[in-house]
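anyone seen this seq b4? input:
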Amino acid sequence: MTTQQAKQILLACRPWTNDAQDPEVAEAMTLCRQDAELAKWFDNHCAVQNAIHTRFNAIPTPEGLQQQIVSECTARLRTVWWRRPSLQFAATVVLLLVATSTIWFNLPRQAGSDVSFAGYRNRMVRQAVRAYGMDLETNDVAQIRAFLKQHQAHADYVLPKRMEQTQVVGCGALSWQGKPVAMVCFRTGKPLSSGAKSDLFLFVIDQKDVLNPPEINTPVLARSGPLATATWREGGKIYVLAGTDEADLKQQL
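predicted toks r here
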């Protein structure tokens, strides 16, 4: 995880919540303890959030406001919604959705994190979906390997023969559970969505750093969230190729 990635994650962190239990937040906070400049930035962020939170809590609720809202809402329901069954049904659906969402978001998060291969793959897919960007943007493979080697990522990755012909556009040095991960970004040639620079992502990690890795070298296709993935093992490393279209992955393998 880079400093910029950690900042993106910690921007959504609120000091008075249990956000620190989230694996990504916990990893970003670990980086804070290793980076004095990032730690200072996060301390300032927390100070601002705490100040805003305190000021909002200090705003007094006008006397009688709650009773007024409830009475006006009740009157509206009696005079309007009960006469219109379609609106009554819509209101019921909305209330059910709100209740379900409240229960879901208040469920306690599990302590620790998923260290399995599935957890790793899901995390890498989220990394691809989020607009973090690349650490290095270049179509020079030699520069990419040099950058990854410099940042202790897996610069000695091996591409499938077909994929060697696909345009490379950059890379990133990531981490998962404190272990290095190489991300190499490609373009298939299809039109990209606004702001996107890549539509194909290759993630490489040492197989000993993943619990229950794939046992076969033949690529296995699977869906993970919004992306299709292909996974295989070669030379002691686990490869995860992610893209929007399963057909694009098959063309690379």
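The first strand starts at residue 136 and ends at 137. Residues 131 and 215 are 32 Å apart (CA to CA). kinda curious what u guys think
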